[in-house]
Every structure is written in C-alpha cells, then in structure tokens.
Specification:
Blueprint: E1 30-33, H1 35-41, H2 49-62, E2 66-70, H3 76-87, E3 96-102, H4 105-114, E4 120-128, H5 131-138, H6 142-163, E5 168-176, H7 183-197, E6 205-211, H8 218-231, E7 238-244, H9 251-260, E8 265-268, H10 282-290, H11 303-314, H12 335-355, H13 392-403, H14 409-426, H15 432-443, E9 459-467, H16 475-486, E10 491-500, E11 523-531, E12 534-542, H17 545-564
Parallel strand pairs: 1-8, 2-3, 3-4, 4-5, 5-6, 6-7, 7-8, 9-10
Antiparallel strand pairs: 9-11, 11-12
Helix pairs in contact: 2-11, 4-6, 6-7, 8-9, 12-13, 13-14, 13-15, 16-17
The protein binds acetyl coenzyme *A (ACO), 3-methyl-2-oxobutanoic acid and magnesium ion.
Length: about 575
C-alpha cells in the first residue's frame, strides 16, 4: 500500500531470559474502571450527572473497589460529580475513588481541593515521557521531563498534607505513552517519583504503565513489563499496574500478556469504551478469566443489564459480536455449529441424569459456546437461530428449546428440508414460531376420518414417543388400546422409541406451547410410514397415548397417500429398538 514507508517498525526488547511465556493467570488482578474518566473524555457527548451516577452505581454493584471518577479540573461537571459523590456520602466503605490530573502545579492544587471531605481517595498524576512528547509538545529534555513528574509529586504531597487532613490519600503515577518511552527513562522517572513519595510499609504506590496509543505486538509490552518488574526498586511496595488501549485491536492480549509478565492491576473500561479504538475491555478480560476457571472478582451474572446501562451512559452501542456481551455471541446460524451445540446440550442433560446433578453444576463442554450463556444471565433460546445456512440439528434444537419436542432423527431431516426450502424461498431468518407453524401444518392431522378411507392395508407403524409415556399405564394396555384403534385398518404397532423426556406443559413458557395453552401433561407420538421409497411422517399430540398414536399414523398415512397420489397399499416399516 502506498505510504507504508512513512511508518517505522518497533524495536523488540532485549530480554532473552523472559519468563512470562511459561506463566499462567491464576488469580484476578486489582481492577480499576476508568469509564468515568478515560471513557467519558472520549465521548462526543460526555455523560450528564445522571448518566455518571448510573455508571458509578453499576461499577459499585459489579464489585469494583477502585473507580476513576473524573478529571476534576477538566470541567465543572467533572468537578461537581466528584463533589456530589463526597457530599452525598455515596462512596461505599470498600471503594476508593481516583481522580486524574496532569503534572501541572495549578491543576494539582484544584484537584486536591475537589477531594476535600473524602474519607479516602487516590490522586493520579501523569505526564508524558516519550521522545516525541519531549521534543514536539514540551520542548524539553529528559531531565526537564523527569523534573515535571518530581515537582508535581512534591506539590501533590504538600497540598494533600495541608488540605486533605482527614483523607486517606493514596498516590498513583503514570508515565504517559510508556510504551513509546525508552525503558531506562521510564524507570528513571518512576524511581525519581518514588524518591519523593517514599513508599514503604502501609504506604504503597501505584505505578501505572499505559499503552497510551498501542503500537507494538502484545509480547513486546509483556517484555517491557517483565523488565520493569525486575528493575524497579522497592518492588514490594509498588503495585505494578497497566492501562492498555486498543489501537491495534490487541488491548486484551496486551493486558493478558502483561499479567503473565507480572502486572498486578489493570485499568480499562466496560465494553472497551475509551479514546480512539478504546481502552481495554474489562468485560472481555474478566470473562476470559472466568472461562478458564479463574474468578474475576467482578459480577457479570447479568451481562445484558450491564450492557444496557453502559449503552445508556455512553450513548455508544455495543457491537452485536462483542465478546461475551453482544447480542449474537451465543448464537449459531450455521448447520454444523448448531448440530454440535445441540449434541453438547443433549450430552449435558444425559450426564445430569446419570450423575443426578443439575446440568448447571456440571463441567461446561458444549461446542462453540465458550461459556454457559446462563452464567451471564442469557437464555438458551437464542443459541440457535435458523436461516438458509442451518441444518437438521438447528431445526431440532428450535423444536426442542422453543416447543418442547424432541424429534426423532428422520423427522429432523424431513422438517429441516422443508425449513430450508422455505428459507431459500423467503430469504432471511425463520423465527421459532414460524418453524412451529410449518411443523403443525406439515405433520399434524388436519383432515377427517374419511380421508384415510383410501388406505389399503396392512400397515406397520414405527412410532416414537416423546413425553408422558411413563404416565400412561403399562405398555401392554397401551398396545392393546392402540391395536383396538388401529387394528380395523390393519395397522400393526410393534415398536416404540423414546426420543426425550416428558413433555410437561407446566414447564414450558407460553410461547413454547405449540398447540396453545394446555397445562396438562401430553404425549407426542411421531409416526414414520413408508411406501416404496417414499417416507412420510406424522405427529399426534394428546393426553392419551393411544389417541396420540392414532392421530400420528393418520397424519403420516394421509400425507403419504396424498404425496404419492395413490391409494395403493401403504406399508409402514418397523424399526427395532
Ligand atoms: C492519555 C490521556 O487520556 S491523558 C488525559 C487526557 N484528558 C484530558 O485532557 C481531559 C481533560 N483536559 C482538560 O480539560 C484540559 O486539557 C486541561 C484542563 C487539563 C488543561 O487545559 P489547558 O491549560 O487549556 O491546556 P490544553 O488542554 O490546551 O493542553 C495543553 C497544555 O497541556 C500540556 N500537556 C499536554 N499533555 C500533557 C501531559 N501529558 N503531561 C503534562 N502536560 C501536558 C501541554 O504542554 C500544554 O501546555 P502549554 O499550554 O504550557 O503548552
Ligand atoms: C492518563 C493515562 C494513564 C492514560 O489514560 C493513558 O496514557 O492512556
Ligand atoms: Mg488512557
């Protein structure tokens, strides 16, 4: 592409004995949400006080104990929001608010004043340290840049000492554009800042290393973090924090590799809001940990509610493909994915029965779904959505999840072909209720008894029972009744397969009751009839199994006769059990 020569590559870090690639993330880091600061400053329409409060309360509810609530000198609304939190006593005892300020004396004084009356707070000072900032923005050398940070720390300590007497003041320093700064210079500035702050027992410091504009591969950032961890003095009093941005789309990877490399704290925003391509997404990071069996220490159990609140506060929609929280991320449209998902759920249910445990307590092993959607408050209903890319597994899933019917394999294929033809003809997606309507139209008996008059016997039906078979009395009685009903037509019923557990209408949501609002237990019988190479399926639903079977065979036989345009003998194959 034209112009590529204008961009320089990045220099790898000389750290041949790096250890981070062999490490694992075993515990959650300390989290800081910067939604109300870095997130807010990136919005075309910054949050109103109401939206800020909504975000703050969400963060508290999710379990954040470190929340950057603003840049008080940036605007009256930032200032007033911090004051409101303090004056209205809205900061829970286990939460520490943080405020950000540039390393400029006049701004620091005002920032301190804004914190008056807070029981505890963190003052976060930053100045840019990279060569391009030193040369282009500040016009100063390394020493000048370091002095800026040192002076700011002194001013902050002095001001806090004098004007924040009742406040437990903690301190965080960030060399902005750390990832573009020479490593030895970042270290030099941080050491100089620590010389002023004098970290020690009960007086820690947070040193926060941002990829202010992400420019290199995540492994380079990890090397930088491991190098710092080895070289910082007073290490036991330093909390090594990272603040990745997502300019290259690798913010999450940068954070994760930094954790492997020794980072202890991560700053970011929910759903990756923030400057340009965003701050690192804390939802993705936390849920990535959860999906590996590491408790993130944040509550994502109603991820849709979190997303809704974030969307209201930011006025920025969350992408439907956003990891873990997007509308479509627990949905498969394509046939082979749907088939594997259905088999995964079936196996989970089998295991639950065998081990007599709720399915929700079993190890999660469902293909194509990284976590159980229910763990984040999503349902299983949207896991499969049907269009022209779908196959029998998907259609069977919809029939089971939405309509409580566990179709035998042959009927799955038969219905899927009809659904596919419909999808091809209409384009787009077929809703579960439309699939249910197609099913009813195709397979249930709609005629009257005379329609079957053309049948010339004998018929042997292969029946599949789905539902309350166990509630229908001894099998012998059932077969006798069926014989009496079907016998005059010469239909022999030899085999009954189970396809699923009882269909209990009490368990189904109203939209799942394919045939209306009945509340008693019913039996579904699927009948497979063959005439030469032709096969037809019929379905009967009734509280009485014999009636259900009768209706199913009539439906199948009628369709077969109609489809083959013949009234010659219908033979029905028996399938062994
Ligand atoms: C990566 C980040 O997200 S950092 C946080 C960024 N957030 C914000 O900037 C939002 C809030 N900011 C503001 O409201 C304003 O920028 C203020 C109030 C902080 C400062 O306002 P102003 O004094 O009008 O300055 P302005 O916004 O034009 O910034 C330029 C000044 O900041 C200085 N500056 C810029 N970046 C930095 C930095 N990283 N560290 C220290 N000083 C800096 C510049 O040198 C310049 O100073 P100069 O006027 O002496 O040349
Ligand atoms: C203020 C700092 C930490 C920042 O937001 C950044 O560098 O991205
Ligand atoms: Mg930032």
């Amino acid at each position: 592409m034209k112009g590529v020569e204008r961009y320089a590559g990045f220099t790898p870090i000389d750290l041949v004995d790096r250890t981070w690639p062999g490490n694992r993330i075993r515990t959650a880091p300390r989290w800081l949400s910067t939604d109300l600061r870095d997130g807010n400053q990136s919005l075309a329409n910054p949050m109103t006080p109401e939206r800020k409060l909504m975000m703050f309360e969400l963060l508290v509810d999710m379990g954040f104990t470190e929340i950057e609530v603003g840049f008080p000198v940036a605007s009256r609304s930032d200032h007033d929001f911090v004051r409101m939190l303090i004056e209205q006593d809205r900061i829970p005892d286990d939460v520490r608010i943080t405020v950000l300020t540039q390393a400029r004396e006049e701004l620091i004084e005002q920032t301190i004043d804004c914190l008056k009356g807070a029981p505890r707070a963190m003052i976060h000072i930053y100045n840019a340290t990279s060569p391009v900032f030193r040369e282009v923005v500040f016009g100063m050398d390394r020493n000048g840049c370091k002095d800026m940070a040192v002076r700011a720390t002194r001013v902050m300590m002095d001001g806090a000492e004098r004007r924040l007497r009742g406040t437990d003041v903690a301190f965080q320093y960030s060399p902005e554009l750390f990832n573009e700064t020479e490593l030895d210079f970042s270290l030099e500035v941080c050491e100089a800042v620590m010389d002023v702050w004098q970290p020690g027992e009960g007086r820690g410091i947070i040193l926060n290393f941002p990829t202010t504009v992400e420019r290199s591969l995540p492994n380079v950032f990890a090397d930088q973090i491991e190098w710092l961890g080895r070289n910082l003095s007073r290490r036991e009093h330093v909390c090594l924090s990272v603040h990745p941005h997502n300019d290259r789309g690798t913010g999450v990877a940068s954070a994760e590799l930094a954790l492997l490399a020794g980072a202890e704290r991560v700053e970011g925003c929910l759903f990756g809001n923030g400057e340009r391509a965003g701050n690192v997404c804390l939802v993705t990071l936390g849920m990535n940990m959860y999906s590996h069996g590491v408790d993130p220490g944040l509550d994502f159990s109603d991820i849709s509610a979190i997303r809704r609140t974030v969307e209201i506060c930011n006025e920025v929609p969350v992408h439907p493909r956003h990891p873990y929280g997007g509308d479509l991320v627990y949905t498969a449209f394509s046939g082979s994915h749907q088939d594997a998902i259905k088999k995964g759920f079936d196996e989970l249910e089998r295991q639950a029965l065998t081990r007599d445990l709720p399915a929700g307590e079993l190890p999660w092993r469902v293909p194509y779904l990284p976590v159980d959607p229910k763990d984040v408050g999503r349902t299983y209903e949207a896991v499969v959505r049907v269009n022209s890319q779908s196959g029998k597994g998907g259609v069977a899933y919809v029939m089971s999840a939405w309509h409580g019917m566990n179709l035998p394999r042959g009927l799955q294929a038969d219905l899927a072909a009809k659904v596919q033809a419909h999808a091809d003809a209409m384009g787009g997606e077929l809703s579960p209720s439309l699939i249910g309507t197609l099913f009813v139209q195709e397979y249930l008996y709609h005629g009257d008894a005379s329609e079957a008059a053309g049948w010339h016997t004998p018929i042997t039906a292969s029946l599949y029972v789905d539902g309350a078979f166990d509630h229908c009395g001894p099998r012998a009685d059932t077969f006798r009744t069926l014989g009496a009903l079907l016998g005059p037509w010469g239909i022999q019923v030899r085999v009954v397969h189970r396809t699923g557990r009882s269909l209990d209408h009490e368990e189904l949501e109203p939209h799942q009751r394919l045939l209306g609002g009945c509340s008693r237990e019913e039996t579904v019988i699927y009948a497979e009839c063959a005439l030469g190479d032709e096969v037809a399926w019929g379905v009967g639903i009734d509280a009485d199994i014999a009636t259900a079977a009768f209706l199913a065979v009539r439906a199948a036989g009628t369709r077969l006769v109609r489809e083959t345009h013949t009234s010659r003998a219908v033979s029905v194959a028996a399938v062994g059990h």
